[in-house]
Design a protein that fits this description.
single chain, about 250 residues, alpha+beta, Conserved hypothetical protein from pyrococcus furiosus pfu- 392566-001, ParB domain, four-stranded mixed beta sheet, three-stranded antiparallel beta sheet, 9 helices, 7 strands, about 15% strand
Length: about 250
């Protein structure tokens, strides 16, 4: 732990933009921060930081007396909670910080703004760039996209071995006697073969089409559901798709 943390919070007026001890930053998380990441998203962030380092600064509020905070108030992370945690996991000792000076309302508003104000890609340019990177030898691992997102954009078949996560989008589950996929212990059931199955995914969720049936699943629920299926039946595409068809009672 740094000497500064032993002495208590740093004086707000003495803070300058630059690297700050990661362990110290982790003490300044905002308990109201609503932003969450799935395990898959956090894993991709962690690998990006492992590959590129701290390429994006965290934003931290000074919480100065001049802005109505009590004397000695700890600074507070406004943006960058997940990046700092990921930096800790990959072994970074410090993380770059941009300091701001906001009152209580401004701090919360900025937290929301940093989490929500984002652009959206031009799909034609995005597809062209991804194809160009792939053709030049990139495995696209560090682009921030989930494997199934890349497959949907590039037209490759679904690979269940690279998918993270999910809650079933329909009621019940394989472990519940009331669920559509429940089987008593020791039961062996013939699954229908997988056929005519596609998954298209964007930032909002996934549309899964199986034969003449389709359904839309929110992104986080889809990732968690696929993880459950992968744990239940393994990594084979046919096994995963057959299990989905069985649970939905699609013959």
């Amino acid at each position: 732990m740094s000497d500064r943390s032993k002495k208590g919070p740093p004086a707000a007026d003495n803070l300058v933009d630059g690297p700050v001890d990661v362990n110290e930053l982790l003490q300044w998380e905002a308990d109201y921060n609503p932003n969450e990441m799935t395990p898959g998203e956090f894993g991709r962030l962690r690998e990006s930081i492992r590959r590129f380092g701290a390429a994006d600064t965290a934003t931290v509020n000074r919480r100065s007396v001049g802005k109505g905070w009590p004397a000695g108030a700890r600074p507070c992370i406004v943006g960058g909670h997940h990046r700092i945690r990921a930096a800790k996991e990959v072994g970074l000792a410090v993380y770059p910080v941009l300091w701001v000076d906001e009152d209580e309302i401004g701090e919360a508003e900025l937290n929301l703004a940093l989490n929500n104000i984002k652009g959206s890609p031009d799909r034609t340019k995005l597809d062209e760039l991804l194809v160009s990177l792939r053709d030049r030898g990139s495995d696209l691992k560090y682009t921030g996209f989930a494997p199934e997102e890349l497959e949907a954009m590039l037209g490759a078949p679904l690979d269940p071995t690279s998918i993270v996560g999910g809650d079933p989008p329909v009621g019940g589950g394989g472990d519940s006697p009331d669920g559509p996929g429940y089987e008593p212990p020791g039961t062996t059931t013939e699954r229908p073969a997988a056929r005519n199955t596609t998954v298209k995914k964007d930032s909002h969720g996934a549309r899964m089409t199986i034969g003449e049936y389709y359904f839309d699943i929110p992104r986080q629920a889809y990732e968690l559901w696929i993880e459950e299926l992968r744990q239940d039946v393994g990594f084979s595409e046919d096994e995963v798709v057959s299990e989905i068809r069985f649970r939905l009672k699609i013959s």
